[in-house]
Amino acid sequence: MTLAQRRILLGVSGGIAAYKSCELVRRLRELGAEVRVVMTESATRFVGAATFQALSGQPVRVSLWDASAEAAMGHIELARWAERILVAPASADLLARLAHGHADDLLSTLCLASAAPLQVAPAMNRQMWAHPAVQANIQTLQRRGVQVLGPASGEQACGDVGSGRMLEPQALRDAMVASFGDGMLAGLRVLVSAGPTYEDIDPVRFIGNRSSGRMGFALAEAAALAGASVTLIAGPVSLPTPTGVLARVDVRSAAQMHAAVLAAAAEADIYIGTAAVGDYRPAEVATRKLKKKAGADLFLQLAENPDILASLSAQAGHPFLVGFAAETHDVLPYAHEKLQRKGLDMIAANQVGEGIGFEASDNALSVVWNGGSIDLARASKSVLARQLVAILAERYRAARA
User: Are the beta carbons of 393 and 184 closer than 8 angstroms?
Assistant: First the structure.
């Protein structure tokens, strides 16, 4: 990875996560980037401007009314200088001002005055992040082409646990590298499906599975960080949209996922089917809650769901197809059989059970393609995702050579 001679304007708004931006400056400069820092007045209450000046090697700007800098319209010069603008942390207040086109300080003015792509890394309390006003502002910015990086989920400075943490500096650095199109999947459009599907029995009950969606979400993030334009089709999970993903579609049932994937696949170069799609659904869905009858068993008639990978494989000019197989036994034989039966380009198979696969942070994969295979040892799903994307990029290039 390199950012040699890339010109990055880092905006820092007020929030405790501003301390992480010091590390971010260091990591960007490690890859050769030239970094200039603009702080809001509130940000200086958390980290001093002298710290960023020492780390960046450049003067730090705070005020729109800096007489020495503005004698030659310095804010316009800085807006033209930047190849990328990254605001990290981006507070709820700053996001609101950007969404509504305010230009009442130097940072917001630069964001409006520059033609450079804008990225924001939100950081705030989980309740604030979930507020409808904040989410509406985020959606407004995304519609305008602003890339929203994160936030992550975890423990927060206030003691709460949930979504709202600023992404770690390394993840933001990797997203910056990807934005310049230097990644393994640069210029490619990747479609990922993730999570379980739920099939309703009645208004209060459903048939589902134990997939958490974490592997698929990790792959979506890894593909984005490798330079791809990523669309994510997500089943019913409680996970934040991964870093760098351009579009997310939430679905519930297998039929909804089938329709969403086929609609998006026409524009995709690669499809990664990590979703644990239910094979069957109730033939009839009761409109009212089914009542228990003493001494009587309940029988459900199940109908087969459409097969997403088989549907795509049957189409002419389909994307490069990557399947997943979660098995409790005979993992490799099932993987080879599924690869051939569904006409896939590659498949990643994993054992599921106690402490691995479903509902676990770790996984292990056996990756199979026609004429070859490789085993990926047990590791976190984010690490496995990066390894799998590297293999995928190599196999995709080989198939298209």
Answer: yes
pLDDT of 156 > 50? The answer is: yes
What DSSP string runs through 118-144? EEEEE---HHHHHSHHHHHHHHHHHHT
- As a whole number of angstroms, the distance between CA 56 and CA 34 comes to 8
Same domain, 306 and 356: yes
Say if residue 11's pLDDT is above 70. yes
pTM for this model (two decimals): 0.65
Identify whether residues 209 and 270 lie together within a single domain: yes
One-letter amino acid at 98 equals: L
Indicate if 30 and 93 belong to the same structural domain: yes
Segment 53-77, tens digit of pLDDT: 999 999 999 988 775 655 445 678 8
Q: Which residue has the higher pLDDT, 43 or 180?
A: 43
State how far Cα 387 lies from the chain centre: 16
With cut-offs at 50, 70 and 90, classify the pLDDT of residue 178: confident
Q: What does the radius of gyration of the chain's CA atoms come to, in whole angstroms? A: 24
In angstroms, the first-to-last Cα distance of the chain is: 24
- For residues 174 and 300, membership in a common domain is answered with no
Q: Residue 387 class from Cβ within 10 Å (0-12 exposed, 13-18 middle, 19+ buried)?
A: middle
Q: Which residues are known catalytic residues? A: 158
Domain boundary among 179, 206, 229: 179
Q: Cα–Cα distance between 7 and 115 in angstroms, integer?
A: 13
Q: How many CB atoms lie within 10 A of CB 1?
A: 14
Q: How many of the other CB atoms lie within 10 Å of CB of 287?
A: 7
Domain that holds residue 70: 7-179
Report how many helices (DSSP H) and strands (DSSP E) the chain contains, helices first: 14, 19
Give the β-pairing of 152-155 and 161-165: antiparallel
| 113, 146, 179 - which closes a domain | 179
Q: Is the omega angle on the peptide bond into residue 117 within 30 degrees of 0, that is, cis? A: no
Q: Is 340 helix (H, G, I), strand (E, B) or coil?
A: helix
Task: Assess whether 161 and 230 both reside in one domain.
Answer: no
pLDDT tops 90 at residue 200: yes
Number of domains in the chain: 2
Q: Is the pLDDT of residue 254 over 50?
A: yes
Average pLDDT for 78-107: 93
* Model pLDDT for residues 335-344, shown as the tens digit of each residue: 888 899 999 9
- Beta strand ranges found along 211-293 (DSSP E): 229-234, 247-250, 270-273, 280-282
State the CATH number of the domain containing residue 16. 3.40.50.1950
